[in-house]
């Protein structure tokens, strides 16, 4: 413990500031630009677990997964220049996913500013469109102040990433300054008149639809409270893109997800709805299906609940906007008397039937019916499994055919970042070593950040990675075949033997080529206690779960 009035090096003040903010994990690729901070973290090694990663993007994805799972800012540390550039994709994920994150970037000595010194970058300019706030600390005495503010900004309103650059010589300065703990701030609650107005609108509705969104902002209690309100009123509930962990997919009130690859029947129903309750979602491009679900002038009544007032009405003019912390809103509506004999119960049942029809596995050609295999898998996984997903067409298979349970979590990048799933799975397993973590990733994304599996071995955690291998960038090939059928360019891939890749580390590797092989392979992976990679060799002709390449070419020929 630091004694009152004791002079400390800036690097140690910074490490102590992280402790003061309640940080328990930090994910990093070490660099010479923050050696003094690393030394400060050595002094705090019993309080902060420093996770050594292999690539800066992987480190930030791990920190972002930490933020999603805990609701507290994930912390990542990277070096200047190339390290910061590599980390930028993770900052973009955190920004579009509204995940609290603090990225600390080593910086050149500030006396060398504007000389294009070795690895010099102006981080205020670089990260301005990607982060909620960007600052640079050049005075060691201001570290507690600026770090406390960074954590406040990351978690306030709409959560998001903050970038803090730390100049090299500042870390070596001595300063006498007290540590600052988090400020006790009560979250915003719904205005007293808001909820009666919302319930009046609900009573007049015939075909309401709820869309749940938001990620790190929800607590377990908040999710339970909003569930109870939605069930008490027998409302049909969809989730926004890659937010399947917000509502029990097995519930008769769950009607699907509004995002990339959404069920056309759900999209049609969303357009037909006469009240749109958007709770925790920005109603962005993916949820609104390219801004086509409704007009922006407000002809369809929208109730928009969001913690950041500036986001309400940003695109769609709501009939009622409610600025509130999501958990505070959930607790408030749970206490309300439900609508008596809601007239929309039949509508809700219709949407559930459509959801069940979408999840029914078609008779795909070939020895592997991936839809059936995934549904067999969901039956044997623990009820508290954490799923992570990458971007790509493969991701629409678990999204369409699996049902994420009430006690499970589902983490995915809403900005479509490839390379997210494997490091996110490792970060999730570090946060919750007692829970099973399953990563869904394509062959393209696997070779972007799959080397982070070394981090899993280094820190002795054992995620299970399912690599869906069709030897192509499948999403781009799909668009290619729709627009330029038969003219295949830049989308074919040459891949390694992924099972042997993990075995080279000493892990568990298997190859799955038939429907009934997936569950036993995953069960053996779980029993091994080792990090595992299961390569699932899929039919490249079945480029989406709704169409083959031949079908896409035929459709293009008719256009």
Question: How would you describe this structure to a colleague?
Answer:
The chain has three domains: 8-175, Thiamin diphosphate (ThDP)-binding fold, Pyr/PP domains (Rossmann fold, 3-Layer(aba) Sandwich), CATH 3.40.50; 194-356, TPP-binding domain (Rossmann fold, 3-Layer(aba) Sandwich), CATH 3.40.50; 361-558, Rossmann fold (3-Layer(aba) Sandwich), CATH 3.40.50. It has helices at 10-20, 35-43, 56-70, 82-97, 123-127, 143-155, 194-204, 220-232, 264-272, 326-334, 345-359, 370-380, 396-401, 421-431, 443-449, 453-458, 474-483, 498-503, 518-528, 549-558, and strands spanning 8-9, 25-28, 49-52, 74-78, 101-107, 133-137, 161-167, 174-175, 208-212, 237-240, 254-258, 275-279, 302-306, 320-323, 386-389, 409-411, 437-442, 464-469, 508-512, 532-537. It is built from 20 helices and 20 strands. It comes from Paracraurococcus lichenis. This is Thiamine pyrophosphate-binding protein.
SSE map:
Blueprint: E1 8-9, H1 10-20, E2 25-28, H2 35-43, E3 49-52, H3 56-70, E4 74-78, H4 82-97, E5 101-107, H5 123-127, E6 133-137, H6 143-155, E7 161-167, E8 174-175, H7 194-204, E9 208-212, H8 220-232, E10 237-240, E11 254-258, H9 264-272, E12 275-279, E13 302-306, E14 320-323, H10 326-334, H11 345-359, H12 370-380, E15 386-389, H13 396-401, E16 409-411, H14 421-431, E17 437-442, H15 443-449, H16 453-458, E18 464-469, H17 474-483, H18 498-503, E19 508-512, H19 518-528, E20 532-537, H20 549-558
Parallel strand pairs: 2-3, 2-4, 4-5, 5-7, 6-7, 9-10, 9-12, 10-11, 12-13, 13-14, 15-16, 15-17, 17-18, 18-20, 19-20
Antiparallel strand pairs: 1-8
Helix pairs in contact: 1-2, 1-6, 3-4, 3-14, 8-10, 12-19, 17-20
